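quick one before i forget lol
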Amino acid sequence: MERIWLKNYPPGVPENVDLDPQETLVSILERTCREHPERPAFTNFGSTITYRELDEASASLAAYLQACGLKRGDRVALMMPNCLQFPIALYGILRAGLASVNVNPLYTARELKHQLADSGSRAIIIIANAAASLESIVADTDVEQIIVTQLGDHLSFPKRQLVNFAVRYVKRLVPPYRLPQAVDLSVALKTPGSQLERHALTAADLACVQYTGGTTGLAKGAMLSHGNLVANVRQINTWFSGLLSSGQEIVMTALPLYHVYALTCNCLAYVDLGARNILITDPRETAAFIKEMRKWPFTCMTGVNTLYQSLVDHPDIGTVDFSSLKLVSAGGMAVQEFTAKAWAEATGTAILEGYGLSETSPVLTSNPPDLEAYSGTIGMPLPGTDISLRDDSGNEVPLGEAGELCASGPQVMSGYWQNAEATANAMTADGFFKTGDIAVVDELGRFKIVDRKKDMILVSGFNVYPNEVENVLTLHPDINQAACIGYPHEGSEVVKAFVVLRPGATMDVDAVRDWCRDNLAAYKVPKLVEFRDDLPKSTVGKILRRALRD
């Protein structure tokens, strides 16, 4: 495919980014700490660590991990929500020459066991809230070192606030556990950072084993090197270079840092800029989230559609000052037109939708920073990224036709951890990664996801893409959320819609179908409609169609 998007790149953005094979995530952190030592780096529950403190703490942890006998390239699991300990632990692991295995702290013991066993992790740094799950399976893994931390550690409160915090977040949410071999993180951080043995890391060294969400089967670990992640940092910050300034940005970080989206965009790319991350531990508490937003003249924000929708739906959203906000990005799921318009009306800013996967570090495409209104697309490939749309035979489709989105670039993983078969199945003969998403591209080089390959609904020989039907449904003023699946019917399928109404709204099945009939071809109109109070979602707010099919 001709790289038609290059003709429409934002002013000043180059076709490619210059990459140094010696640059790593460690060198990025150390440079930022030298340039902005007293600049606030991360804030959580009102407490802050500066880049100097992040430098010192992560060096101490790295030295401790090395003293435990961990060798270059060993994997260390990191299992905690957004808190000040997360960046300390992540950078400590990396500075020790180790690779981080980021784990959802809400995982069950079975899910945790799979990631620990599959990755061969020799150590784990874990929030106490999840320690009971670890206790039940640790004997069946290679884990030798356990470091535990409480959610309230590293926070500075007046005594009364500290008591309230402990009751709310620690005692109530930490099930009893017994891990006699565990060491408290505060003990590990007493190790002198001067004892750290500095490895001569390069771009080829493994930085993270990032597991896929598991919504399509058993989770696989994408091997992301320092080079993959540094490349994506460079691509992102080059794309937004006209908006962002070093040492000036404040970003609201509500998505979990263990997820690849926030990991790269917030914990890596914004650190490269010397930005201040305001960590939100539980964004589902919308009122508390909005209260935190009111405290800061934040300039940037990342999120998913459901997060933005929950904010604009809350009556307190009008109390937030958005006058400093200049960059709002979204990924993980399609941005609905209704949400984008409501957000723009409430804040005066456009949501810049992008696209990526765990296997691509993650960002492949983004809408341009000067976007004025909802585009309905995922934008254009970032500098140095090639995208090819292909049919089932691997042939590139003509302009305007739908095909599987296949990607190539320095941010694409080297493969799945210890899974050569899955790696081979995921790659084309000419080295493109097959995303499994179906997309089209317009004459301006803007891509639009029309759906997951496996989620496509076949209605009497016609293809129906759930995203299109869901978007139409959520444009109705009484519908808050919607999801569609294919339902077996007479050897084919019909569309089944699951609908969540807005508070106080009333609709029946006929009203839903009438609305769709006014906006969709007849074969796309849901034959079945089920009303629900909520829809199943992943921990980052992505609606899980598979759970609905099951």
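fyi The domain at 456-549 is CATH 3.30.300.30 (GMP Synthetase; Chain A, domain 3).
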